[in-house]
Amino acid sequence: MQVVHLSVECFPLAKVGGLADVVGALPRYQRKMGVDASVVCPYYDRPFVEKNQFVSIAEGSFFQGAEELSYQVLKEENDVLGFPLFLIRIPGKLDRPEIYCYPDEAEQWIAFQHAFLDWMKGWEKKPEVVNCHDHHVGLVPFLMKYAVAYQEFASIKTVFTVHNGQYQGWMDWNKGVLLPTFDTWKWGLLDWDGLINPMAAAIKCCDAFTTVSQGYLQELYQNANGLEGLFRQESAKGFGIVNGIDDQYWNPGVDTLIPHNYTLKNVMTGKKNNKRALAKKMGLDARYPLLAFIGRFAAEKGADLLPDVVGGLLSGGAVKLSIFVLGSGDEHLQTRLQELADQYPKTLAVFFGYNEALAHEVYAAADYLLMPSRVEPCGLNQLYAMKYGTVPVVRGTGGLRETVLDYDQEEKGYGFVFEEADAAEAIRAIERAVGALQDPVSMREIRKREMSLDFSWDKSAEQYVKLYNQL
């Protein structure tokens, strides 16, 4: 079976969030199962492209409105990611260093989807399945069925994976002239509330849609930024498949990005040594339990709660802690956190920005990871944390509820769950976690329990392949 994954992110080519981690791992695990899986992404002027060998395999052009665009398809020659990677380059559109935040983003993603379909017309063997990831490529299921030039693709099955239903790619109808010519009787499939909505179009037109956890699928029926009714209407073709993690890359036993490797057998010593190394690097006190936050400073991640949580814990809370925050986003939030770091220099350190190597060091060093998310379709950070013997303290939403069992509520629980996105609740959960795991015996037990869990991509990849076969 030939499957193409279409996405604007893929680790390590281009990463902003969990979308990149999924697309960078899932195809490799599918190939282990005998599926001919590949990835198609936009071209980015980034280090990964400079460091690896790419060869041009196709060229073409098409009109986007009145503008003629030329494209080039580049293939990474050595399959360094464990699967074929193809990049579509369009001068002036898909040749930039950043992934998002350009003023013509809608035109970029339309061009990417159009170029992919134009290139696929020349393929000798067409894929059985095209798996589209998030709204940036949400027009593809519609265009494969109703664009005049691509009617030959109507029988190819399409799967649409919802990584985050809050972002839907809305665009005014004046952008409609940029699309490939389509059957105008079908315009309603593109429309939602007077706008072109790529995510809505994908849900209407795909053969099946998946979400990145079963819990998030249920949440979309109640909270999907205006698409709740559509998700309920199309629920018969919806499937919740929890994300996995790449346990070759996220593995403290062989991780080259951490100072001290460790396994289940020496987890206590390994964690202690890594905490000492990080504490020395960041000026923290290694004697105290280390609480970490890693992520975007966005309301959906509950990051706006951090100043109150951190301030409450450090200003005479019930437990003694060191805290490290790694992330970026809201500048006002960064300012508040920096002020707290200046106020508590020995017990709070912050790093603003994304740093892959530092993230690994934090997972290896931290005793607890805080995830106070308002929305968390699956969450990968809690899975990485548990792989490294770091105890997750999470709000019970989406995939967090599905993957973290509460220590006090479940016989073999391995995390701490709180219900409301509220600073006081988060503080109580952190204090509960630290209080329950004060003695080394309890901490060793929970670390070994969570490190023994299997959150690899093998199970998830198997479920995707089963769905493809059903289609």
Automatic annotation (TrEMBL):
GO terms for molecular function: alpha-1,4-glucan glucosyltransferase (ADP-glucose donor) activity; alpha-1,4-glucan glucosyltransferase (UDP-glucose donor) activity. InterPro entries: Glyco_trans_1, GS/SS, Starch_synth_cat_dom. It catalyses: [(1->4)-alpha-D-glucosyl](n) + ADP-alpha-D-glucose = [(1->4)-alpha-D-glucosyl](n+1) + ADP + H(+). It is an enzyme of class 2 (transferase). Its EC number is 2.4.1.21. ADP-alpha-D-glucose binds at residue 15. It holds the Pfam family Glyco_transf_5. Pathway: Glycan biosynthesis; glycogen biosynthesis. Belongs to the glycosyltransferase 1 family. Bacterial/plant glycogen synthase subfamily. This is Glycogen synthase.
